Amino acid sequence: MVTAALAEAATHPAAGAALDIEQVSHAFDIDGAELPVLSDVSISVEPGEFVALLGPSGCGKSTLLRLVAGLDKPKAGRLREDDSRITRPHASRVVVFQDPTLFPWRSVWDNVALGLEAQGILNSQRHRVDAALDLVGLASFRNAYPHQLSGGMAQRVALARALVNDPKILILDEPLGKLDSLTRITMQAELVSLWQRKGFTTLLVTHDAEEALVLANRVIVFSDRPARVKADIRVDRPYPRHRGDPYLANLRRQILGLLGLDATW
Amino acid sequence: MSTYSLSDGLASGAPRLSRTPLLANWVRESGIGVLASIAWIAFGLSCLWWEDVGDWSRTHSLGIAAFVIAAIALFGTVGADYLGSAGQALRKRAPWLVALGAFLTVWEVATAKFAWLPLPFFPPPQSIIEVYTDDLPKLLDSVFASVKLQLGGYLIGATVGFLTGVSIGWSRAVGYWVHPVLRFIGPLPATAWLPIAFFTFPSSWSASTFLIALATGFPVTVLTWSGVASVSNAYYDVARTLGAKPSFLVLKVAIPAALPHVFVGLFMGLGSSFAVLVVAEMIGVKAGLGWYLQWAQGWAAYANMYAALIVMSLLCSGAITLLFAIRDRLLVWQKGTVKW
Prior knowledge:
The complex is a heterodimer. By secondary structure, chain A is α/β, with parallel strands linked by helices. Chain A has helices at 2-11, 61-69, 108-112, 114-118, 126-135, 151-163, 181-198, 209-215, 246-258; strands at 19-30, 33-45, 50-54, 76-81, 84-85, 93-96, 169-173, 201-206, 218-222, 229-234. Chain A has two domains: 15-92 and 169-265, 3-Layer(aba) Sandwich (Rossmann fold); 102-166, no CATH class. Chain A is built from nine helices and ten strands. In chain A, the strands form two sheets. Chain A has a six-stranded mixed beta sheet, sandwiched between helices. Chain B is mainly α. Chain B has two domains: 2-120, no CATH class; 136-330, MetI-like (MetI-like fold). Chain B has helices spanning 2-49, 59-78, 85-113, 125-134, 136-170, 172-185, 194-200, 204-229, 233-241, 246-283, 289-298, 302-330. Chain B is flat. The interface between A and B is medium-sized, with 28 and 23 residues.
């Protein structure tokens, strides 16, 4: 029994975790004045769900991600991963930022190895770095330095650096925002297939409604700052999704309406 | 039809075209080598043709050596194609050989032969050679003493400066206490401490080591500190979400990110420590190249001063070359670093 359970755990080490965001509010102190950015946000994410957070620029989505990552503490409310409270960063919740922020003094391989090295398990787990590089198709660039990579390749390395830790929750802060449209479409497809294979819970911040609809099975729309949840939309469509799908087009119109763009669309 | 005539024209034109560039090529590649050879022959002749106005023992040998160099320059550049990389390197430096030969000729004529420049103050090349051959043991002792003093002081200063810089950059509490001290003492030229240092330290050697360390430590501290302070928060965020502990953030994020700044500090520290070294040797330490300079001046041995200056310049330049080589090794990931 026990060995069977262990084998099961080994084959699915990265199955997603549940995420509970309970009545979270947050504010920044700017020159003594308090600027509220999140107002009473409650979201409950099932294990393995792909949730897109959509909202106007500067509404506080990225702040919410920092709270989920444990990089900042909320002024009010609680965040929980499965049943443990989130108080600090942990390698089970890994962030991919808008900028790849690779360490320029490390080669591609060493960048991907960063998480394992920080946790002190690199020496026994070197094969995981190679596997993560294979996963994003950059095995032949293992010795390159970041300044030798294109924007898309750098972002792939950043993705590999996150995935090598087998995160339970993958936090994506507009990771495709700065890529050209072709690279973007390719990487969207790659993200979906990685998520399907690995089964981690995914939280994606984006301001592109189409991207949210192609990738996520739940889209949460935020209001202007201070952000509150305006709508929680389930997207029940099989993958791979087609961009021209009339069902998605209809949802997109609704979402843009929620964001106040109905006059132009 | 047209393709035929085209290839015909090319075939018949090719040998005619390549004949004239052959000569031009030869002149371009080896002409400067021939010029260099002529310049060094001129130098050799200038040594041997006229009688010296003074009494120098190495004039004859110097003339012969100049002819040898002229021969090497000639055969080295003309036959560079058969000499591999050494020949190519010689060819690249041929213009410098021309300039050097011309300069030495003028120097020889203006000092040893016609004394256009006043004599004890402007010694001829052969008298400097004479210093290197006849006063070699003393000169080597001085070099050894200087290198020992400089190396010790520099390593202590660089280490302490680096550690202080990282601590100030990392810890607010350390910054609170060390920063004012640094601001008060740092900008003071290390040489201003000389009189006090030679009183308070048990030996002039330890006093000089302290001063050299001080001169090195200040720029290294400030630049390490600013390097650590300017590391982007995004790097720390990335490392923290990957499970990094504070020690990892310092050793694997802050320090590597700050390293380009640290090397600027090490470079500046090296420059200012040379100045302190020479002054300290002239004033307190009775050894080293600075002391040799002082001693030579006391005896009006101007040739010895020039000889020591040349050695000193080679040593300082060598130290900077070494530092830059280490930097290039450690910072291969940087684009476009300055070549020294």
